[in-house]
Design goal:
The protein is an alpha/beta fold. 41% of the residues lie in helices and 13% in strands. It contains 15 helices and 10 strands. Strands 1, 2, 3, 4, 5, 6, 7 and 8 form an 8-stranded mixed β-sheet that branches. The protein has a two-stranded antiparallel sheet with strand order 9-10. A hairpin with a 5-residue loop joins strand 5 and strand 6. The two termini are 13 Å apart.
Amino acid sequence: MISSALASSRGFNAPTVVQQARNTCLLPRTCRNLTVLSIDGGGIKGVIPGVVLGALEKGLQELDGKEARLAEYFDVIAGTSTGGLVTAMLTAPDENNRPLYAAQEIKDFYLEHCPRIFPQYKPKLFPNFAKLVKAISGPKYDGNYLRDLLKKKLGDKTLHQTLTNVIIPAFDIYTLQPTIFSSFQLPKSPSLNAKLSDICIATSAAPTYLPAHNFQTTDGNGKVRNFHLTDGGVAANNPALIAISEVTKQLIKGGPLKPTEYSRFLVISIGTGAPKDQPRYNAMDAAKWGIFNWIINGRSNPLIDVFTQASADMVDFHLSVVFQALHSKDYYLRIQDDTLSGELDSVDMATEEILDALVKRGERLLAKRLSRVDLETGKFVPCESTNETNEEALKRFAKMLSEEKRHRQSETPS
């Protein structure tokens, strides 16, 4: 397994291991390809990646048996905000040292818990005024249910215990710097070995929606580090580029591949949907907005919409250009629905009807023809070179992932 090949290099607690790992590549030496899975942020829209990842895992199970799990096939899984939560679900170990959740269980997790994470309250009198008062007085939701749920599910498990390398970004409002919880960084920064529950609470703490999260860690020398964190989407709503950068740092240390060999990367990046089909805001209206209009506009939050969407799109633009320029476009798969509109594009409108509709959107997305971002318009357009659907593309990647896993097993001494 890919995860077992990594395990011996990730037990960083012993000082000797830390010293050795600081200048040692933590990637398996037997690989032909490096495998990356990335999951965007997007609140309740995490249902869509749940559906897509369930299809990918099903494809792997058809090849390798019903016990196949995504963590066994990826060198790194990265996720921001709701994607960080999915990352933890896929990689945190249960009592049998198996993934806490199968990918096909993620959708049901969201359907069960989102209505209580984002309880819907509609004041009968002066609803807009009530929303304004709430926005001024504190975050829209208290986050208590989410915190209790994550602590119950993840317990005391920490970053170094994940079944493969993970990357989960957050943003520290005390230092105004991104904080990247990366398995690769643990040897030189043991203070990053936080509880997975704390990491997930932090990366999900979208400004105005959920409270920022403060916690501490203590490294092996007793040094305490304080974190004051908010949503990872502030730094990278699409964490695919961070994941590739972290892997590239490992290759610079003397890994199995050259840092520029993008054709040797297998990258799957899953979006949570975007409203590219219809205009959202216009400059004539926005020119008149004050701070409250930028924070509250109907059910949406224009300020957060702008920075999270821009972050995600810029990463996809960059990777699309790089992989195409290096004639490696078939090794980069971005699956994104850019036709969401109205209530379906909400990150928190967790009604039964909206959640069920998001499930259907995920299923429709699988059946849609494979698309790539148009670098001029920013919209996703069908690939001219293939009639392959997203589901068929996932099966193609599943075959490559399975072959990579078998290659590593055959090259690993017994």
